[in-house]
Amino acid sequence: MNDRDIAAVGNKNPEEHSVLLDCCGGLNNLDYSKMDLTLMQELMKCINLRDSNFCIAVLAIFFNPLFWNVVARWEHRTRRLSRLFGSAYLACYCLGFVIILLNVYRSHSMTVVMKSQARWDVLERTEVFYAGAALIVLGTVLVVSSFLALGFTGTFLGDYFGILMDDKVTGFPFNITDNPMYWGSTANYLGLALIGASPVGLVLTAFVAVVYSVAITFEGPFTEQIYAERIHHSKHE
């Protein structure tokens, strides 16, 4: 406790003072060395972080969102791809096709690691298998319904090519989450990891979730800026 905390304690009545000191004392006297880390140790024993396939999968996970964000922002600033292909739509379709190929490769690289590394007996349970299957169904529903709601250009960064939607999509699945495509993909990977009883799959899925979370912090405000610019230009026309 610092001096400010002590001063605050001094202003409380004796009973509150005693309870607070007991709580703080309990936290300070907690012996973290006695915590049971057996499960975490068993998990890490099943994962080979030096596996080249693991490193490739991690690189694919980090590279994909970085690639499409950099390229799309470059296109938004310069319109180079649109001029190169002679059409904003054609340029968007080509970038979308590349993104699909990159995501297929990422999924393949993750699957290779899951199959090549050890399974975890803690996950070798019927209920875990069914939970994984349920996550895959949920993830597929989110991804497919998101694609149907946005269309190809809406899904694959058409906003950055100047292909803007008339109105914000607010129906399913966007009434559940703002980024159903990302979280649906994450649910699919988690489901595959559970079905395969793959500890390395759990770790890779955590990487996917972190990378998507970071991507969202950049993509969301930038997309809002694009639409704000359209409103600004329309008011001055």
Automatic annotation (TrEMBL):
Family named by the database record: Belongs to the class VI-like SAM-binding methyltransferase superfamily. PEMT/PEM2 methyltransferase family.
Domain of life: Eukaryota
GO cellular component term, pick one: endoplasmic reticulum membrane
EC number: 2.1.1.17, 2.1.1.71
UniProt keywords, alphabetically: Endoplasmic reticulum, Lipid biosynthesis, Lipid metabolism, Membrane, Methyltransferase, Mitochondrion, Phospholipid biosynthesis, Phospholipid metabolism, S-adenosyl-L-methionine, Transferase, Transmembrane, Transmembrane helix
Molecular-function annotations in GO: phosphatidyl-N-methylethanolamine N-methyltransferase activity; phosphatidylethanolamine N-methyltransferase activity
Intramembrane residue windows: 52-72
Protein name according to UniProt: Phosphatidylethanolamine N-methyltransferase
Binding-site residues for S-adenosyl-L-methionine, renumbered to this chain: V137, L138, G139, E219, G220
Entry's transmembrane regions: 54-72, 84-105, 128-152, 189-215
Chain's gene name: PEMT
Protein location: Endoplasmic reticulum membrane; Mitochondrion membrane
PROSITE patterns according to UniProt: SAM_PEMT_PEM2
Catalytic activity: a 1,2-diacyl-sn-glycero-3-phospho-N,N-dimethylethanolamine + S-adenosyl-L-methionine = a 1,2-diacyl-sn-glycero-3-phosphocholine + S-adenosyl-L-homocysteine + H(+); 1-hexadecanoyl-2-(4Z,7Z,10Z,13Z,16Z,19Z-docosahexaenoyl)-sn-glycero-3-phospho-N-methylethanolamine + S-adenosyl-L-methionine = 1-hexadecanoyl-2-(4Z,7Z,10Z,13Z,16Z,19Z-docosahexaenoyl)-sn-glycero-3-phospho-N,N-dimethylethanolamine + S-adenosyl-L-homocysteine + H(+); a 1,2-diacyl-sn-glycero-3-phospho-N-methylethanolamine + S-adenosyl-L-methionine = a 1,2-diacyl-sn-glycero-3-phospho-N,N-dimethylethanolamine + S-adenosyl-L-homocysteine + H(+); 1,2-di-(9Z,12Z,15Z-octadecatrienoyl)-sn-glycero-3-phosphoethanolamine + S-adenosyl-L-methionine = 1,2-di-(9Z,12Z,15Z-octadecatrienoyl)-sn-glycero-3-phospho-N-methylethanolamine + S-adenosyl-L-homocysteine + H(+)
Any Gene Ontology biological process: methylation
HAMAP family given in the database record: PLMT
Organism: Labrus bergylta
EC category: transferase
Pathways per UniProt: Phospholipid metabolism; phosphatidylcholine biosynthesis; Lipid metabolism
Membrane disposition: Multi-pass membrane protein
Side Cytoplasmic, residues: 106-132, 218-237
Record topological domains on the Lumenal side: 1-51, 73-84, 154-196
Job of this protein: Catalyzes the three sequential steps of the methylation pathway for the biosynthesis of phosphatidylcholine, a critical and essential component for membrane structure.
